[in-house]
């Protein structure tokens, strides 16, 4: 069977072989491995068969711990079983991995290697995770490229069956897992030839079977456990030879020959590096270049890292070697060296001691590179080889960063390049939403599969979920591409969004004579004057060719709206001339038909038309001789920002984070809060504009705004004396806060994302023209300058006294300052309005534990943080531990706070006579039930601090001094703290449920906010146990067959947990009331908040309608369960919504997640919809019964 | 008692046919209509515009956020078996044909000329016994004159007839300047039947929320006067069959329509209001009336009260209107 050339990424390559060579797959999503499982799920849904002609069983579990448990179980019962994971996920599998290896079980786990969260989480690639499994007894096999991923996936599978040692097959997260490359695809026939059926049957035979019962997994005592552990030695001893044998067999079959250690370089090399993973590709490329320059260098690729074969390693080294530079893509603080380095030292040393070293004892140095996908370029690699030339090369060096604290880093010349001049290198800057990455993936496939060229694509995303910039790096050429790093010498640069001209120096990496394509609304004649000075200068200096297209015009005229992918793709082919134009267009159209054919003829036709209309709208612009522009790229942060913001945050925002030295980084991951306000992103095309005449001053717009970009204030009229001319103000209609007050709704137009939720949620219509409301969307650019001034003026207006506000009302809650602002959440996010509300109500005394997920990313991803502080310097203290442990993490906060509070109280009693009995009594007996109480307690604490300082200064008694100093460090804990535990449904319903349940049962006063999107949002829409029946999600492509878990009911069963289910878009007053009640309850509280999400497939700008429909249908009941009411003889349960007003389907079919099933599986959709309606009806009636029952329902 | 009639070249057991409406979305409901005595069923309308919009919305909402964020290259599973076209409707035709013994008439509302032809062809292939073209274009464009719209209707009929072999009826709008001329033109364009008239949904105002909202009301018996007049006027003067629809509730309504010349009467509002068994009730009362009034067959009464056959045809014309006004004055 002839092998196809395919253009795919590393994840697909691994998934492809894993799917074909396994019977059972149990997974849990985690970046960057999720796609492997998603591919398998898709193939299973398509009914694709493995090499034995069956469709593997695919199951999504509740955690990686669960997935590995199921894998272990399936293996123990004889199935060929696999999973896919990374990072923390792999760590959660370690307990089972010890078992699986201990039981000599054949399996391969495919791992897209990723950093482990230490001082910070990172989703990007390095070897920290796989290195953490070294003691499990698993073989570790490393792939360096997409082709190797496919090949080694199969070699690992073949080897594990023979060796009975389980394998981790790993490759670098993102760099290889997400790199798209043209490779040769193995055929099922290849796989059948590599997999020995006799070994498969032996594996199956070892499975537990009551027909031939055995017991496995005993508990052993000191007498025999040790001996038992040593029984496996022979298996490990022969494993390297088995892997090499399988590699040799594979070489015979495919022509691609691999070695478990593989040397590349000069036969007489003196300086040799040892490296593993994608970095080896760049090293090979560099070595080839250096050899051509006459240098005696070489490199050794480590493919089978465990079991480590000293014999094979030594044999592979050239006998001329004098110095070894070992490169580790991980860090082990406190170790005598990183793991690969240590193994090499041991290997050389042992062999030397045995007298078998075939060369003189070499110098060995180790270094770290590439943590968290840090670039690893030929320039850096050359620096390593240069270092190895020295008499005393630096050991334990770092390369790729400036490490100026302990000075481990090597200097490198960034201008050094080894890239093949025959390779086309293009960089494309796009917006996430404009389809740029998708179009480029398509282009790679077209070139990869339509020409003999090699092709490579890699894509960089920023960390925002709205208005994110994507950068695509595409290489094509006649020679195999080994450049495993970003393009820094581009001969084609495309800017798909004009706005990037203001923020990004896109031409920095362009080579002389390169082409620049700009999507702009400006004409050929006008465009030059729209360019910043640096762009004009670069175009002239580098003698570049300049092309323009008004892609949005073409897209709009052809019905494509904001999707300019096909237009820009056509421009790229037309300019680059990689293919003849006609051929290119034909292939683009073929790709369009293939991609969109099943989505509807209209979509295909629209794209065809866009392609056809592109050429006539693409113009080359003659580059003038002189720079005429008077403006430049704007500063990333204002020039008057604090030093840290200018020197660190600003650099990261501007895209120069790679240049930051270690000395400027916080040592323990601690960052200042309130930094999003410096990052004026200006991403909204339209922003809300307040019409005070129509406004009824309800503050709903401010409440629903996901980004805190709309604020309300009341203030004394006198402050308007200095107001800017365009500052808007109206008399405040309500009188409860005094007469003659003024009122303003102010929009932060530079921070707004333009979602329009405020307009949708505004209840006030202009009676003369009902299309207008009290807040209306208008283009942002003409408003930018005036509103910037108005915003600054507004911020300087004094905040209204919190103690005078009725904070349990929608209106007054919005006069509280948000301490969560301008996050990177999606435009129109359904979660952040709740988060922001909590920050307004309790932010000045809140400690927040945040589960990993969307909320930890928009809440804590650099460069900036939305968690903020007020003018007194108070605000939420926030942290993220892990995904699975968030409830316990927040519980820990509470334990600590209670402990400190108790210690402080004891000391106050002890020092009472010195402090003053009255003050001590008042402090100890402060109720702190409302804002006024809190203020009074704060005043007492200030008084106490003064007194304690006086005592400290005046007392001669050392014991008293000791107590006073101790108490001073604890007094802040005498002001009531509000502990919040936040996260999504993936955390609360699935991976963190055990901990959440335990914390609820603890009785401790913590507040748990579940931002329930009913799906794993952050990792891309995988089913959770919150996903409702009939909804489509990944791993539920045929509609989720089971009902949504009722987390609230489970919590209510404890009887002493405050539980509320809320939906701000349906009933905002209920939301505010429930949150205030929950916080006030002296015990655990659980608030489950309906959070609409892009993963629902809805119009986010009108999503409050979906919330309302969800409530009206009865799917989302609004209720509160307040245990305090029992003591009052009342029913603790109050059902606060009238459900069953509309059929469930009238809600569900507003959303693509349900609707799509009617088009893909109409019969299943109809059946599931009937069942889902039944779920809704029964559940609602049950809650009605509870509401109408006696108060002792749970007693 | 012979209740049989012919319509679009098909022999029907009686002249009562449920018209296009929500009740025919399920095979079980279609079967219930047959069991109640329906002589044929016109399925609910397939809207080309809806198919397009649904496929565009599905595409947009499942892909809008793709490739925007490193952790999620997509948010939905790949839709392997997504049916972007009329598959669901065509499947209903197939299943209705399998489940019943009565003719199944598919109803189509196209958008483009190509769409009309393509979907009509699909419906024929799926087994529809006949087509009803639900031609509907609200003339809101100030730049389109009446002739252009009339020609569009004629072109659609010609194109569809050219491409299908099964009979084709046209459900007509009542808003033509010259209904008689238009009926004649459609007849000449090849229409096998005209269904009089299409009743359009009219918007309403929600005063609480100051919104223009759809407010679907069932037709009332008053609505039957308009088709009654025009069937009466057209009967015998054009070749194609005439079907009456709008406001037909009772056996007497059916009889009146037959008397002015209808081959069949289509009802929906009354079925939605009283359930499928209303059909059986109407048929049985119709038989009773015919016996009492000594009619042996529906053919006996057909057209007997038409423009051609009444003594004073001016009743159908302007004089009729004048007389009503003057009688009110009296």
Write a structural description.
The complex is a heterodimer of chains A (1195) and B (330). Helix content of chain A is 39%, strand content 16%. Chain A has 1195 residues and is of the alpha/beta class. Chain A has six domains: 5-196 and 222-253, Thiamin diphosphate (ThDP)-binding fold, Pyr/PP domains (Rossmann fold, 3-Layer(aba) Sandwich); 259-399, Rossmann fold; 424-621, 3-Layer(aba) Sandwich (Pyruvate-ferredoxin Oxidoreductase, domain 3); 671-816, 2-Layer Sandwich (Alpha-Beta Plaits); 897-973, no CATH class; 1013-1187, Thiamin diphosphate (ThDP)-binding fold, Pyr/PP domains (Rossmann fold, 3-Layer(aba) Sandwich), CATH 3.40.50.970. Chain A has a nine-stranded mixed β-sheet. Chain A has an eight-stranded mixed β-sheet with strand order 29-28-30-31-33-32-34-35, with helices on both faces. A seven-stranded mixed β-sheet of chain A has the order 3-2-4-5-7-6-12, with helices on both faces. In chain A, helix 17 (533-541) links the parallel strand 20 and strand 21. In chain A, helix 15 (436-450) packs across helix 19. Chain A is globular. The termini of chain A are far apart. The mean pLDDT of chain A is 96. With 330 residues, chain B is α/β, with parallel strands linked by helices. Helix content of chain B is 42%, strand content 16%. Chain B has helices at residues 27-35, 48-63, 87-99, 113-126, 146-163, 179-189, 225-234, 251-260, 269-274, 277-292, 298-301, 318-329; strands at 5-7, 10-12, 16-18, 41-47, 104-109, 130-134, 168-172, 193-196, 203-206, 211-214, 241-245, 264-267. The radius of gyration of chain B is 22 Å and the shape is globular. At the A-B interface, helix 2, helix 15, helix 21 and helix 41 of A face helix 2 of B.
């Amino acid at each position: 069977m002839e092998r196809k050339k395919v253009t795919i990424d590393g994840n697909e390559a691994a998934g492809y072989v894993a799917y074909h060579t396994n019977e059972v797959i149990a997974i849990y999503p985690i970046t960057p491995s999720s796609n492997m499982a998603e591919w398998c799920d898709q193939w299973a849904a398509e009914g694709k068969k493995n090499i034995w002609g069956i469709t593997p069983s695919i199951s999504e579990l509740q955690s990686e711990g669960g997935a590995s448990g199921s894998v272990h179980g399936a293996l123990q019962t004889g199935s060929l079983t696999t999973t896919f994971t990374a990072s923390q996920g792999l760590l959660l599998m370690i307990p089972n991995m010890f078992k699986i290896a201990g039981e000599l079980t054949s399996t391969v786990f495919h791992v897209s290697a990723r950093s482990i969260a230490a001082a910070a989480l990172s989703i990007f690639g390095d070897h920290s995770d796989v290195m953490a499994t070294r003691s499990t007894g698993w073989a570790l096999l490393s792939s360096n490229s997409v082709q190797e991923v496919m090949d080694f996936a199969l070699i690992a599978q073949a080897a594990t069956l023979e060796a009975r040692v389980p394998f981790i097959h790993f490759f670098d997260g993102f760099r290889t897992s997400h790199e798209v490359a043209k490779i040769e695809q193995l055929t099922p026939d290849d796989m059948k030839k590599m997999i020995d059926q006799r070994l498969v049957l032996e594996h199956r035979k070892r499975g537990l079977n009551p027909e031939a019962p055995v017991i496995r997994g005993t508990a052993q005592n000191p007498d025999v456990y040790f001996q038992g552990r040593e029984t496996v030695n022979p298996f490990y001893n022969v494993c390297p030879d088995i892997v090499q044998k399988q590699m040799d067999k594979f070489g015979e079959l495919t022509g691609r020959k691999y070695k478990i250690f593989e040397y590349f370089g000069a036969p007489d090399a003196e300086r040799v590096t040892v490296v593993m993973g994608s970095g080896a590709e760049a090293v090979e490329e560099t070595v080839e270049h250096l050899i051509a320059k006459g240098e005696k260098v070489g490199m050794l690729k480590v493919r089978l890292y465990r079991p480590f074969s000293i014999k094979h390693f030594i044999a592979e080294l050239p006998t001329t070697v004098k110095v070894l530079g070992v490169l580790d893509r991980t860090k082990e603080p406190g170790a005598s060296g990183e793991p690969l380095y240590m193994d090499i030292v041991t290997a050389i040393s042992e062999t030397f001691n045995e007298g078998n070293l075939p060369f003189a004892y070499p110098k060995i140095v180790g270094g770290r590179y590439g943590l968290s996908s840090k670039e690893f370029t030929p320039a850096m690699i050359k620096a390593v080889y240069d270092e190895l030339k020295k008499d005393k090369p630096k050991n334990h060096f770092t390369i790729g960063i400036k490490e100026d604290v302990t000075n481990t880093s090597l200097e490198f010349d960034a201008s050094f390049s080894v890239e093949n001049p025959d390779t086309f290198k293009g960089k494309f800057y796009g917006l996430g939403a404009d389809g740029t990455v998708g179009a480029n993936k398509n282009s790679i496939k077209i070139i990869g599969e339509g020409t003999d060229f090699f092709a490579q694509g890699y894509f960089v995303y920023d960390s925002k979920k709205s208005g994110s910039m994507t950068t695509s790096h595409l290489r094509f050429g006649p020679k195999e591409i080994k450049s495993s790093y970003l393009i820094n010498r581009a001969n084609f640069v495309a800017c798909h969004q004009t706005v990037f001209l203001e923020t990004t120096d896109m031409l920095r990496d362009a080579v002389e004579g390169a082409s620049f394509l700009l999507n702009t609304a400006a004409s050929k004649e006008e465009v030059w004057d729209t360019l910043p000075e640096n762009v004009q200068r670069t175009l002239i200096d580098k003698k570049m060719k300049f092309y323009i297209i008004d892609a949005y015009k073409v897209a709009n005229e052809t019905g494509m709206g904001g999707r300019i992918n096909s237009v820009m793709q056509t421009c790229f082919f037309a300019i680059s001339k990689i293919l003849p134009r006609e051929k290119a267009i034909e292939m683009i159209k073929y790709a369009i038909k293939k991609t969109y054919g099943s989505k509807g003829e209209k979509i295909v036709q629209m794209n065809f038309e866009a392609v056809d209309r592109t050429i006539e709208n693409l113009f080359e612009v003659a580059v003038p001789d002189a720079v005429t522009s008077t403006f430049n790229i704007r500063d990333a942060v204002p020039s008057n920002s604090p030093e840290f913001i200018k020197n660190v945050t600003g650099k990261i925002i501007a895209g120069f984070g790679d240049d930051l030295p270690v000395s400027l980084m916080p040592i323990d991951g601690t960052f200042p809060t309130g930094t999003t306000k410096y990052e004026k992103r200006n991403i909204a095309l339209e922003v809300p504009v307040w019409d005070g005449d129509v406004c009824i001053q309800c503050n709903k717009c401010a409440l629903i705004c996901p980004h805190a970009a709309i604020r309300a204030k009341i203030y004394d009229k006198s402050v308007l004396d200095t107001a800017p001319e365009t500052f808007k103000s109206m008399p405040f209609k309500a009188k409860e806060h005094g007469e003659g007050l003024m009122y303003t709704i102010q929009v932060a137009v530079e921070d707004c994302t333009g979602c329009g939720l405020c307009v949708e949620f505004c209840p006030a219509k202009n009676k003369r023209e009902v299309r207008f409301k009290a807040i209306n969307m208008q283009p942002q650019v003409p408003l930018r300058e005036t509103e910037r001034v108005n915003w600054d003026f507004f911020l300087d207006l004094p905040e209204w006294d919190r103690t005078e506000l009725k904070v349990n009302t929608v209106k007054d809650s919005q006069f509280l300052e948000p301490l969560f602002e301008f996050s990177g959440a999606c435009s129109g996010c359904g979660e952040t309005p709740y988060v922001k509300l909590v920050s307004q109500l309790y932010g000045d005394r809140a400690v927040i534990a945040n589960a990993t997920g969307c909320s930890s990313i928009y809440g804590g991803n650099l460069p900036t943080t939305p968690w903020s502080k007020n003018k007194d310097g108070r605000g939420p203290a926030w942290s993220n531990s892990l995904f699975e442990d968030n409830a316990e993490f927040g519980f820990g906060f509470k334990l600590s706070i209670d402990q400190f509070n108790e210690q402080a109280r004891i000391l106050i009693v002890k020092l009472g006579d010195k402090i003053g009995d009255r003050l001590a009594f008042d402090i100890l007996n402060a109720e702190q039930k409302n804002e006024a109480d809190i203020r009074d307690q704060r005043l007492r604490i200030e008084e106490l601090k003064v007194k304690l300082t006086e005592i400290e200064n005046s007392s001669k008694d050392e014991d008293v001094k000791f107590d006073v100093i101790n108490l001073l460090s604890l007094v802040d804990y005498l002001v009531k703290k509000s502990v919040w535990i936040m996260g999504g449904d993936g955390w609360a319903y699935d991976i963190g449920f055990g901990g959440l349940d335990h914390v609820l049962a603890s009785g401790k006063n913590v507040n748990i906010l579940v931002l329930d999107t009913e799906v794993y949002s952050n990792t891309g829409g995988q089913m959770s146990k919150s996903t409702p029946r009939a909804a489509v999600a990944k791993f539920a492509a045929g509609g989720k067959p089971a009902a949504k878990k009722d987390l609230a009911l489970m919590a209510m069963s404890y009887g002493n947990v405050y539980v509320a289910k809320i939906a701000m878009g349906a009933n905002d007053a209920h939301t505010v009331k429930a949150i205030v009640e929950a916080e006030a309850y002296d015990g655990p509280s659980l608030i489950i908040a309906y959070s609409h999400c892009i993963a629902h497939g809805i119009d986010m700008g009108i999503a409050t309608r979906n919330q309302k429909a969800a409530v009206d249908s009865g799917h989302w009941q609004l209720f509160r369960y307040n245990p305090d009411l029992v003591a009052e003889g009342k029913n603790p349960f109050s059902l606060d919504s009238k459900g069953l007003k509309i059929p469930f389907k009238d809600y569900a079919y507003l959303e693509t997640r349900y609707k799509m099933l009617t088009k893909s599986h109409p019969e299943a959709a109809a059946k599931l919809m009937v069942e889902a309606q039944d779920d809704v009806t029964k559940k609602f009636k049950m809650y009605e019964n509870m509401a109408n029952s006696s108060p002792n329902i749970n007693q | 008692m012979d209740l049989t009639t012919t319509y679009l070249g098909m022999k029907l057991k009686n002249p009562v046919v449920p018209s296009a409406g929500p009740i025919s979305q399920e095979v079980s409901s279609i079967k219930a209509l047959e069991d109640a005595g329906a002589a044929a069923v016109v399925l609910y309308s397939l809207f080309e515009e809806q198919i397009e919009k649904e496929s565009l919305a599905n595409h947009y909402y499942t892909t809008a956020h793709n490739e925007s964020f490193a952790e999620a290259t997509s948010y939905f599973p790949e839709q392997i078996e997504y049916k972007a076209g009329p598959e669901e409707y065509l499947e209903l035709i197939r299943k209705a044909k399998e489940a019943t013994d009565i003719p199944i008439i598919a109803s189509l509302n196209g958008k483009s000329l190509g769409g009309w032809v393509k979907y009509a062809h699909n419906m024929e292939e799926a087994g529809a016994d006949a087509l009803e073209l639900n031609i509907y274009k609200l003339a809101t464009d100030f730049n389109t004159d009446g002739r252009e719209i009339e020609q569009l209707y004629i072109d659609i009929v010609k194109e569809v007839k050219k491409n299908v072999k099964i009979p084709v009826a046209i459900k007509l709008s009542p808003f033509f300047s010259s209904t008689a001329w238009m009926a004649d033109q459609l007849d000449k364009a090849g229409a096998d039947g005209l269904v009089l008239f299409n009743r359009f949904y009219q918007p309403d105002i929600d005063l609480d929320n100051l919104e223009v909202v759809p407010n679907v009301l069932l037709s009332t018996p008053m609505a039957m006067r308009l088709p009654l007049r025009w069937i009466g006027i057209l009967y015998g003067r054009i070749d194609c069959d005439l079907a009456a629809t709008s406001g037909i509730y009772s056996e007497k309504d059916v009889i009146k329509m037959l008397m002015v010349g209808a081959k069949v009467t289509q009802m929906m509002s009354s079925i939605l209001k009283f359930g499928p068994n209303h059909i059986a009730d109407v048929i049985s009362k119709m038989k009773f009336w015919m016996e009492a009034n000594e009619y042996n067959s529906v053919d006996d009464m057909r057209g007997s009260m038409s423009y051609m056959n009444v003594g004073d045809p001016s009743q159908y014309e302007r004089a009729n209107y004048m007389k009503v006004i003057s009688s009110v004055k009296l």
